[in-house]
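This section describes the prediction task in plain terms. A model, or a person checking by hand, is given the sequence of a single protein chain and must write out its three-dimensional structure as a string of tokens. No templates, partner chains or ligands are provided. The sample shown here is typical of the held-out split.
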Amino acid sequence: MTAGTTEPLRLRHEVKHQISPQEDLVLASRLGKLFPRDGHAGPDGSYRVTSLYFDTPYDTALREKLDGVDRREKFRLRYYGERPDFLKLEKKFKVNGLCGKRSARLTWSEAERLLSGEDAFLLERGEPLLSELYHKLRGTLLRPRTVVCYDREAFLYAPGNVRVTLDRDLRTCGDSAGFLSPGAFPLRPLEGVTVLEVKYDAFLPDLVRLAVQTPGRRAGACSKYALCRRFD
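The expected answer:
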């Protein structure tokens, strides 16, 4: 995706679980035998994800998540790997139990300007998502709030457009200062726990449903953003 483009809207199912290290080992081995890994993964099969979430002075995004509000949204900046060379602004939203996402490319210098309080360029770009963020920054006082970093192992299955991810070693720095200077995320809000996510379109194939099963586990709300906000 090049600068100036916005991804099309797509609503998907998204189910999350917290699993133990033992369950992680079993699932990673099983999934690796059944499905291909994400092509962007490193030699160990995983890659780093670093996000900076925005929220209002009234913690609107956090409160709506904790209260289970069905129609909600949150903005974040995100990059993959060790360096912030490829950045995206993303708006995640949930409607009637389905999740969607819009995104737009940002350069490193634009992200730096945004974090320093400059926002006029968001209108100059002429992209709807960037314009929406500008008005939210001005109208609701939306501001960068918390960094969320983890290591992700992802598996793909074309039928149903399924993506299964294992997110490990969740960490943060407690504020937004270190987002563009990776490496200093010493706080770990979910020590020894992996977050399993299953995302799919209209249906979840039986092969995947059976592959991700572990005894006694149930789906449940698990927000990495909410977990990292504990260190504010």
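For orientation: The longest strand covers residues 143-157.
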